[in-house]
Amino acid sequence: LQDADELAQETEDRLGDLPEPLMNLIRLVRIRIASRDAGITSIRLEDGEVVITSSETRPFAGRLMPKLPPGVRVGRTQIRLARGQLGDSWLVPIEALVRLLGGAPEAVAVG
After folding, report:
1. How far apart are CA 76 and CA 15, in angstroms?
2. Which backbone phi and psi does 8 adopt, to 5 degrees?
3. Distance (Å, whole) CA 54 – CA 105
4. Helix 20-38 × helix 2-15 angle, to 10°
5. Which tens digit of pLDDT belongs to each residue from 51-95?
C-alpha cells in the first residue's frame, strides 16, 4: 500500500492534481492489495449491491468483524451492501472496509 501512496504522491508532485480516473485506479490497486491480506477473492457489483466474497478457507462467518452500519449483510462467505448508500466516492469506504477485514487498526465509517 505504501508503494501505491508513494506513486500517487510523486505523480501529483510532478503533474499537479490527479484526475479522478487516475485516483480511482490507484484506489483499485490499494483495494486489491488489501483484499489479499483480508482473504477476499472478489469484489463485484451485482444488482445494485457491492458483493465482497471471501475464500472458502477464510470465511467471514466466525471472524471477529468490525462494527458495520445498518443494511450491511454478512453471510458465510459474502458481505453485501447497497452501492447507493456509499455515495459517489464509493471506493473509499470499500477500501476502508477491506482494510478493516484484513486487520488494519484504523476505523473509517462505511456509508
Report:
1. 45
2. -60, -45
3. 20
4. 170
5. 999 999 989 888 887 778 788 899 999 999 999 988 888 999 999
